[in-house]
Write a structure and sequence with these properties.
single chain; alpha+beta; seven-stranded antiparallel beta sheet; 2 helices; 11 strands; about 15% helix
């Protein structure tokens, strides 16, 4: 409305309604839980980018992504494995990033960009995984929402799931 400095306006241009709708409150709560989850998992908040030897990308059939897979328009669901054993970094306080109670931590972040639910073959059969985040349901927990024993997990359409080795 003709003014490029909205902060200098005491009018409807700059007023903010702090009475949130239920949807806005749910979005705020979800975002707060994501921040708490990130703070609880050092592998998600390290100071440096991961090198190609510290992470592994997977197709939904459980096989490692190839160069051709990255250019394939039919690749609809991928997973990112972060293995604490490969990180080799310490926090400022000297604790090893990627260890939980003295054991290497492993995180698997799965993205389904397709409009249909898809199965995802979990790497390392026989391992129990804890679901920490499921964007389809809006559930977030540092203790785990549920257990997945595999070998496959169903990833809902257009959602992401974060798992940790239990």
């Amino acid at each position: 409305q003709g003014n490029n400095n909205g902060y200098n306006q005491d009018s409807e241009l700059s007023w903010f309604d702090w009475n949130w709708t239920q949807t806005q409150q749910q979005q705020f709560d979800f975002t707060s839980q994501l921040i708490a989850l990130r703070n609880a998992l050092p592998l998600l908040r390290r100071r440096y980018f991961y090198g190609h030897d510290q992470i592994t990308w997977f197709r939904n059939d459980g096989e490692a992504l190839t160069t051709d897979d990255w250019g394939d328009g039919n690749t609809r669901c991928i997973g990112l494995l972060i293995d604490g054993d490969t990180v080799g970094e310490k926090n400022r306080d000297g604790t090893v990033i990627g260890e939980q109670d003295g054991q290497p931590e492993r995180l698997l972040l799965i993205f389904n960009g397709f409009w249909e639910d898809l199965p995802f073959r979990l790497p390392s059969e026989g391992i129990t995984w804890q679901v920490l985040l499921d964007t389809a349901t809006g559930e977030v927990s540092t203790d785990g929402i549920r257990q997945e024993n595999g070998p496959d997990i169903q990833i809902q359409a257009r959602s992401s799931v974060l798992l940790r080795v239990a």
